[in-house]
User: Fold these one by one.
Assistant:
Number 1:
Amino acid sequence: MRNYRNILLLTSIALLLSCASAAEQPTILVKARLEPGDAVNDAPVRIFVELQSSQPATGLVLECISPPGFEVTPRNVALPEFQKQFTSSAFTLRRSGKTAEVGQQNTLIVRVLSADQKAAIAEASVSFSYVKRIPIWEYLLLGFFGIALGYAIRLLIKVLQTVPAPALAPDPNAPQPGTITQWVQKHYYFVDCSVTLVIGLLSLTLLLKNDHVPDSGLYWYSALGAGVALGLLANSELVSKLGR
């Protein structure tokens, strides 16, 4: 009988200790995001983790688990004591092999572990894609040639639609144009093409986002097509695009 009472007493004490330990364990909320939102080429991606705690949290460890084909450095970090809100940007995600496929959805897991790293207190996941983009210089170069090609096509269309009229005798009483006007008239198509190339290249530059080529120019053929589309526009239309 005495042994049975001792067992009950020890069981009660263990339950009280476990309840006290659970009561001391803070409630953690985890949110994670990537900047940029996707993994682009082999460039590193910063991982931002936002933590919220209902009470002071001490001795916790933050861990990131990367999907296949990627690696996170460092694997885990010790968190300082915090309360209410804390943001960590200690992790970096990078492509580590050729198993990552373009456009495939991947999931990164972020966990908050206890000090002994045996129990997970909170967990969150963030999805991202692997995107293969051409570099900016290649995008601008292909777009530049695309603009020149589009201008040549526009010029051919204009010639096909135009019936040349007989030249009229110049009026001797008409005022003579200035030097710049005469030079432009003499080199009309060279000037017109140069203006189209400059404005078109500026338009391609304005399409850049966050030091990356736009979605419309991810690949060489889309960058070339974007340039051709700009080259087909008149200079006045290109100027209007710059103002948007």
Number 2:
Amino acid sequence: MKRVSKNRSGWLAQVLFILSLVFLGFGLFSLGWLAWPSPTESVQFAIPAGVLAGAPAGETFASLADYNLTVSWPTWVRAGEEGVIRVTLTESADLEPLPAVNREAQVVLVEPALAGLPIRPPGRMQANLAEKQDLNLTWVIEGVVTGEFLGKVFVAFGFYDQTLNELVPVPVAVVDVSIRVTSLWGVDSGLVVWFGLVGLALWGGLFLMGRVIQVR
């Protein structure tokens, strides 16, 4: 009878050890998915000094220097979390800018448009880029619903038209953006954290139970 009881205890201990490993893998997978960094995609453009190609006919709206434009965004975002769209504009250091005529500021207009996802701040952002100054603009996107979302980032230089008495935007770049909002098991990140911690707790509990049964 003792041998039969011992065999049963050994079998039960093995079952508990196997279950503990299953929950350990479940917990580590859940927490690892949360910790895995989201890859970022980016594109770069060179904006040469001089009259802009998109300027209206007969106008001399120009880029006041040679600029490097970079637009970056996350390729995917976890549901319930946030991602960042970033636009940077820097003046090329290895090229001579145009003579400092009306170099008070280059007016830059940037607007990301991504249907289906909230963006903060909303709408178009305007900034004045002084000589030798770098521009770094960011927008926060909220992963409120899963799916694939397509959009664009519009970058333009602005020029004041005295005749029209308004700021005229001249496009310098239009970037296509694709962002996927994904979830694990159809739940947001907060529940995934809870699942991961519960998995680790069950692993520890089952492992200890198996050890207790094994030594008896």
Number 3:
Amino acid sequence: MINMLGKRLKGVATAEVLLAFVQSWELHGSDETSICSGTLDLLRAYLGERPACVWKNTGPGLAKITERGMVEMFYSGPERRAALGRALVSGSPEFDPCDVSVTSELKIDFEGFLHVPIKSHGQVHAMFSLAANRKEARDRGFVQPLESLAQLMAIALHHGKDQVATEGREKRLKAEVDAATRELGQTNHRLIERVKELKTLYAELQKRVLELTNANKAKDEFLSVVSHELRTPLTSLSGFLSVVLDEEAGPLGEQQKKFLGIAKGSAIRLNALISDLLDVSRIESGRLQLEMAECSMYEILREAMEQARPAALGKSLQFRLQANIMLPAVWGDTSRLRQVVENLISNAIKFTDRGGEIDVMAEEKGDFIEISVRDTGTGLTPEEQEKVFDIFYQADTSNRRTAGGTGLGLAIARGVVVMHGGQLRVFSEKGKGATFSFLIPRRRAQIAA
């Protein structure tokens, strides 16, 4: 999995791991032991033969659920248990160095053991451990996908508990669910076949990688195809959830409505993520089409603020617009410019603590209009400012997990601004907030220097 994410196309690899995890879940079962066993099989499939184990937090300590190739010394001694305890308390991955060979029969030596917590609702409920080297444990490219897999495991384990709690559903609802499951199974089969085709195509591309000059274009095409293939079953799932929630298929109990509402909300968030992925793909490949015309930047700012105002009020933020209503028109795509402003405002709200301030400003700068979003949030270090517009990048802040997000919004915003002939910049100091500003030309042929 790690090599795949490091050298293969990231969009396709993420979809493959997701589909492999879901398929393993369906094949092995949704109980605790089956989910954990399927996950270890998935790790071995992508990382090769290496010792691995899944632990359960029992309160007083950790109890082993299942293992692959473990040796007694990894969890019997006090030093090993101390490393497990640190990961349990910190909630973050911990590396436990080990001085002896742990896989002599495989003729592969690892330098220790990486423990990755499985958290749900801010609490560590389980943990998986696998043999690793020090270099791997320090590499975010190695550790971060394992953390994502831990999040998937937490979702799967939570879902398994929900299944146990809802076994007493009415027969008519069960028949509807079975029908939907069959249809989803057929859709899943088509997805699996499509992923197989993509794997075959990738293998062919890998052989000719040194000869190809358009590798970025190929990556974008793969990302677009996978996103479209994911959206098809998602649309079907959302439709069936709406039918059931509207009680067109029969009456529902309050608990059933609650669970189905959660599922529909997750489908909506996933659909938004797919839309962002498609936008990134179109921007990078040059396939994003802009509908250029004269548009009012003041109205764009006002509408974007009205859209974000409930979220700002929910955190008791001072939310201000500082712009002249007579601001000159700009040459651009109204909907895409609004998307840029909404992304910047949403980012400011996420990383500004309760009671903070957010100012949305517009000012004439010669042949350009400068738009700025200033907040009093956590701010960025110089190193973070260099990476903040990269795809999937998220600043390492203390409220990163509570803020959520995918790291695509700023990348999309920068791409749209560049397509308008402008530039998106950030000015920030750690702990003192941040200001994101961009220039939009007032004339069709003007380009920001």
Number 4:
Amino acid sequence: MTVQTRFSKYVNESLTAEKCEQSVLACTIDTSSKGGADRILSAGAQVSSLKAVAADGQVTVSGKLNVKAVYLTPEGTPDSVDYVSDFSKTLVCPSVGQESAVTVRAEVVDVQAAVEGDSIRMQTVVSICPYAVTKKEYDLLEEADGAFVKRTESKFARFAGFVEAACPVNEQYATGAVVEKVLSFNCTADVCKVTSDNAGAVVEGEVCAVIVYVSDGKAVQKNLTMPYVCRMDVGENAKADVVAEVSGCRLVIGGPATENVFEVSADVALTAAVYESYGAQLISDAYCPVKELKISRLCLSYDDYLDTARTRERISGSVETDDGVGISRIVCALEKDNAIATVEIRDDKAYVDGVLAVTVIYLSDNDDYKSVDVDLPYSVQIALCEGVKKTDVKASACDVFAKVKRDSEIEVNATVCVSAVCYGESVICAVDGVEEGADLKPCEDSVAIYYAKKGDTLWDIAKKLSMSPESIAEQNPDVGERVQQDVNVVVYREVAV
């Protein structure tokens, strides 16, 4: 062969979302030992401890579902149920193989609760989204002796794996009273900031704990915010998308008998999806002055993880009760669900619209426990890094509380936390096949003049003149990489006599 070629193997990995599916999980909780239930005041659910196992063409997802409900007994006093169950679901994922690295994200879409005799029937809709690492190998042209080649800077991605870390937090709260009963206790974790350095990543976040308890015959709410800082060994100069969840939380009532103290502790489980990248000067074109070359090219694009942007914003909303009865006091405000409606990327910002639904339990002027749902629409902006083409947006809420605004109006305030996983589009175009064709007659003119046309590049001219781009650029120093229209390019050749 006139042209001697050598090919090398390149690997590209990316974490891609598979098709999301919804699963309906139902359970029945017996309340007869507590005297039965009359009506539901609030209902909520959380998913946690998610695991994903890959097989050929499918992913099996398992986790825990924690459902909670505050209800009114036939005697008119508030009580609660808290039930944890395991669940498992197998999802069809054609691109997943036995050895694929997979993870999963799930969120509660809807919770419905109803009293059935002495039991509470709860039905939860959970959206489950698996993510799989797709690994592809390519044999690409590395060297072509006897030919001129054009090299283009390209970037390959590598998924380095998942890194896990645990961070315990704890806090105390002196109630100043005797705690008769805890109606609801819930903890959620959020990541506020991730700072990368040469040693890894420092994760800063907070755990929000909500306690609803009865003291002196009255039900009240206490919100606690517990910050945490944790270092994760994600590798030098790697990029990490970090998510947090509470893997376990405990509430212990201690202190003096007349002034109880809450001791709250929670275990924060941090999981980082770690991404690395490496650059390569790939051959995107080649030609030979004496041989026709038939070139085949591989051109592909992939979603390249760039960063995770986060923002927090305080929001509020209000609702009028329509029962004609005044409000004595607010008992508690509990998050029901948080749904994102639209996401638009524009001018390096993500514009996110959503609705936070909150259930407010209150005591009316005639000492009846009642509840009402309040929708808090929000519209937030998140500053993104350059080059973002696609985002995966999630929202959560913390520090939710309510107050009486007027006799029959309730105002709810909350902090909405929105994160956007940002992806850019990386393009790879390289030669993956070379086949020699017919002989070419070499140009023997000692002088050649080329009249540049609009869009011509130095490489285009070099191919037409069967010379190296470096030789043409050396003889025409005023000609750049992209030649201006109506410019004459003059070259001289050494001609054997």
